[in-house]
Amino acid sequence: MAGGDQGRRAAAVFDVLGPVYEKAFAHSEAHLASLEWLLGRLAPGSRVLDVGSGTGRPTASTLAAAGHEVLGIDVSPVMVELATRQVPDATFRRADIAEVPLGDGSFDAVCVYFSLLQMSREQQSDLIRRLARGLRPGGSLVLATVPADVEDVEVVFMGQPVRATSFATEDLVSLVNRAGLAVESEHHTMFTPAHADAVAEPHVFLYCMREETRPPARRDRSRRGGQGLPGCVG
C-alpha cells in the first residue's frame, strides 16, 4: 500500500502475484500466532481494519470466522477480487489507505502485515500515526515487516522487481511509540516464502496497544534471525 506512483507500482506487482502470494506465505507460523494473540484480546463482534489485505487469507478469513467485522483495504484489484470471493463474510475495498478516512477510535484492532515496505519513511510514519488514532483506547495493533535500515532500494520479491523502504527494529519501535502505541512484545523470526525465487528473510512482529495514558512501552523481545534485508521482501 502506497501513495501515487508507489501505489500503482505496488498494485501492479500484486496483480501479477495474486494467489501465488497467498500460497508462498501460508505456512508462516509467526503470522498465525499473531492472529491468535489478537483473537484473545477482542470482544465479540469487534471491528478490525486489515491494511493491505491481499487475498483475505489468513488474516481476514481468521477474524471473520471468529465473528468479527473486518474491513480490508488493498490497492490491487486482483487481490480485492480474490479476497471478496474467498472471504464473503468480510468487506474489501480497492483503495490507497492514505486516502481512506479513519475516524478517531473507530476500530477495535488494526492489522498491518508487510504492507508498509513500498511506502517512503514519511508515508509509513504518517500512516502509523493515523492508524493509532483510528484505534479506540485499549485497542490492539499488529504490525509485521522486514526490519532493515534501508530506503528506496531495489530488490526482487518473488521474481518481481520492487523498491523497498524500511526501518531498523529500534527505529520502528520508536516510531510506533511516538504514534501513541505501547509495544507489548515483539517477535523476530526468519521466514522463507514457498516460492522458487524466494530466499530467507527476517521478519519482525510488533504487538501493540493504544492506551489513553501511555506508560513506557513494555517489551518482551524474542529474537531469532538477523536484521538485514535479503533479496526478497514479504
What does it look like?
The protein is of the alpha/beta class and 234 residues long. The protein contains seven helices and ten strands. It has helices at 4-17, 19-25, 29-39, 59-65, 77-86, 121-134, 169-178; strands at residues 47-51, 69-74, 91-94, 107-113, 135-145, 153-157, 160-164, 181-191, 201-210, 221-222. The strands form two sheets. The protein has an eight-stranded mixed beta sheet with strand order 3-2-1-4-5-9-8-10, with helices on both faces. Helix 4 (59-65) links the parallel strand 1 (47-51) and strand 2. The longest helix is centred in the N-terminal third of the chain and has 14 residues, at 4-17. Mean pLDDT is 87; it is low at 214-219 and 221-234.
